[in-house]
Design brief:
49% helix; iron; alpha+beta; 10 strands; Cytochrome p450; Cyt_P450_CS; Cyt_P450_B; monooxygenase; 5-stranded mixed beta sheet; binds protoporphyrin IX containing FE
Length: 431
């Protein structure tokens, strides 16, 4: 079963002796009972992790929003004291690419965010629709052909993974011929080093760094009508400098692909296991599909936790009802969005997958925190929703007879506390 973390909701006393192991496959598959127990103890709890460190996990909905809007929770990663000097090319590349706005606080963040918001306009995002439709249609046709040939296909491999990478390729204005490379490098830098051939992860970091450096130079010479060209064009006087552009390209790639991949994979799974909801979406059209997407975001939050925060001082959280928690200064804090989105104090029947709630509750459920909250609220939420709105109906229209070819309770999930989604999603069918 799932190991219960050692928690101390009210202070420093530690009651439960086992540490939380995020790599435990049972935990990865279904972390929700654990989060529910944690939340029952208090809206934030200090947990021992299997790697010997401690972290504060915020599981309450109200407190999640409180933390994400509070500048005393910093996004700047702790100083790299004691880490090896960035003396290898791969470490230097990684250091450059990680200097992006999700790792900054105000006022740096405010400036970077303003510049990127100016480029990421609704008009520019909406203009991607025909391209996303074409990319999806091609992938679905290919998946259909594989289904007909092999009798089964993995929807993660054939659909949920490639589509977001291709769409980010559009955002960055990357030539189609380069997108396979982008896909490979992105996959590698997101993988544990020991899961790949020696040197593969390092090689991917240096390749991405070199590629984006060259991309910026190319956009300067010959700007396109893509979003990244707009950022490059506005660089210079008061705009992004070259290092910031580089980190922004990497952030868009990284923030945009794995999250959307998990949204598409979890949505496919939930619709395959809830045929009545699939039928309702097919019958009722776009508003119902949009409600499905929102409910997947809430019920199967693709970003299970935010990026790590660190307290700049002692913070008293959610006081008032006798359930207040004191988090000391310099503590590691993770806002568990997946847990906040199932807080029964805010969402009635939180464990039920019920897209209909969005059409009947006057917008209450739409205040889920799957895209975060506060100054770092997801820059790509409109794009992610557009991708889902296009891709899900096309997938189920193109592969109408498919059925799940695995036990949903035994699927393999990505380990860790940060992202969540099935790693493979085999379907069979009569395409
Ligand atoms: C930030 C979720 C898709 C770009 C965030 C955050 C969340 C999130 C929760 C805040 C993280 C934190 O506070 O630590 C999601 C989900 C997505 C998605 C669930 C898909 C279902 C995208 C896409 C893009 C994108 C498609 C871009 C193309 C960003 C950026 C940030 C961000 C740039 C950093 C914003 C800042 O620091 O101000 N996202 N995201 N995201 N997201 Fe998304």
């Amino acid at each position: 079963g799932v190991t219960v973390g050692r928690t101390a909701a009210m202070g420093e006393d530690e009651r439960v002796p086992d540490a939380l192991n995020p790599a435990d496959p049972a935990f990865a598959r279904d972390p929700y009972p654990y989060y529910a127990r944690l939340r029952a103890e208090g809206p934030a709890a200090r947990v021992a992790l299997a790697n010997g460190t401690h972290a504060w996990l915020v599981t309450g909905y109200r407190q999640a929003r409180e933390v994400l809007a509070d500048p005393r929770f910093s996004n700047v990663p702790p100083r790299a004291a004691g880490r090896p000097k960035p003396d290898s090319p791969a470490q230097r590349a990684r250091g450059c690419l990680a200097r992006h706005m999700l790792n900054t606080d105000a006022p740096d963040h405010t400036r970077l965010r303003r510049l990127s918001t100016a480029a990421f306009t609704p008009r520019r995002v909406d203009a991607l629709r025909p391209r996303i439709e074409r990319l999806t249609a091609d992938l679905v046709a290919e998946a259909g052909a594989r289904l007909a040939r092999d009798g089964s296909v993995d929807l993660v491999d054939a659909f949920a993974f490639p589509l977001p990478v291709l769409v980010i390729g559009e955002v960055l204005g990357v030539p189609e011929a380069d997108r396979a490379d982008l896909r490979t490098w992105t996959y590698r830098v997101g993988s544990p080093a020991d899961a790949l051939a020696p040197g593969a992860v390092d090689e991917a970091w240096t390749s991405l760094h070199a590629y984006f450096t060259e991309l910026i130079a190319r956009k300067r010479r010959a700007p396109g009508d893509d979003l990244f060209s707009a950022l490059v064009r506005d660089a210079g006087e008061g705009g992004l400098d070259d290092g910031e552009l580089l980190a922004m390209a990497f952030l868009l790639l990284f923030a945009g692909y794995e999250t959307t991949m998990n949204l598409l994979a979890s949505a496919s799974l939930l619709l395959l296991t809830h045929p009545e909801e699939l039928a309702a979406a097919r019958r009722e059209g776009p508003d119902r599909w949009a409600a499905v997407t929102e409910e997947v975001l809430r019920h199967a939050s693709p970003l299970e936790g935010t990026t790590w925060r660190r307290t700049t001082e002692r913070v008293e959280l959610g006081g008032g009802l006798g359930r207040g928690v004191v988090i000391p200064a310099d503590a590691s804090v993770l806002v568990v969005l997946a847990a906040a989105n199932r807080d029964p104090e805010y969402f009635p029947a939180p464990d039920a997958f019920r897209p209909g709630r969005y059409l009947s509750d006057g917008g209450r459920a739409a205040a889920h925190v799957a895209f975060g909250h506060g100054p770092h609220f997801c820059l790509g939420s409109r794009l992610a929703r557009l991708e889902a709105a296009i891709a899900l109906p096309l997938l189920f229209a193109g592969l109408p007879g498919m059925t799940l070819a695995a036990d949903p309770a035994a699927l393999d999930y990505r380990p860790g506390l940060l992202v969540r989604g099935p790693r493979v999603l085999p379907v069979r069918g009569t395409a």
